[in-house]
Amino acid sequence: MKITYYGHSCFSVLAKGKQILFDPYITENTLAKNVNVDEIKADYIFISHAHFDHINDAVRIAKNTGAKVLGNFEIYNWLLKNGIENAHPINPGGKYEFDFGTVKCVVAQHSSSFFDGSYGGIASGFVLTTKDGNFYYSGDTALTLDMKLILKWTQPDFAVFPIGDGLTMGVEEAIEAAKMVGVNKVLGVHYDTFGFIVLDHQKAEEAFEKAGINLYLPKIGSTIEL
Asked: Domain Metallo-beta-lactamase, which positions (predicted)?
């Protein structure tokens, strides 16, 4: 599958000809200053939770592209209030079929609130099963035994995990998460953007290599294939 990384936890996946974008946070991310948010293409946008660093550019990109935007019920209502009619609610436990494949929403162990501090609903992750490949995006989360259930929904080809520590899993936890879901390819996200989640890239790569897992840390704006 072709994956384009836009910085922080924002990335897109091409599946069955559809561009599927996750957690758009670009314009306020200084590390993504060379990415033109208005050139990003999306047919679907998935939002894992309501924190600003995952939702910041969702409305703008949705209006530019006409993409269908999915998030928990609180995010769904927020989207409607912000003029996004092509929105669709999905809460943990829920599953839907789309033209690119199946999406199962799963629990993430994390807080969630909007810009003004109001309740943002439960944080979540997503399990995608498509003809072009399967993957698990955990969203912002701690390591949790719930991850062992992922294999009941699909056999992932790779996983997307936060590795910046502090607010989410760190490297050690992400390695354990990879073992739980049976993958040897991990796209690392949620690191370096802020001072309290700066990653030691060399140590992270060495730790994953020692565990027999391939860690991918692509440059912002680049596209890789997994």
From this structure: 7-190
Cα gap 47→123, rounded to integer Å? 9
Three-class DSSP category at 183: coil
What mean pLDDT is predicted for residues 147-171?
A: 97
Residues 103, 90: Cα–Cα separation, whole Å: 9
Report phi then psi at 30, rounded to 5: -65, -25
Amino acid at site 174: A
Measured between alpha carbons, how far is 197 from 93 in angstroms, rounded to an integer?
Answer: 30
Structure tokens at 64: 């530019």
Are 19 and 12 in contact by the 8 Å Cβ rule? The answer is yes
CATH architecture of the region 2-225: 4-Layer Sandwich (3.60)
One-letter amino acid at 210 equals K
Provide the 8-state DSSP code for 30. Answer: G
- Residue 109 and residue 104: Cα distance in Å, rounded? 16
Q: Cα(18)–Cα(22) distance, rounded to whole angstroms?
A: 13
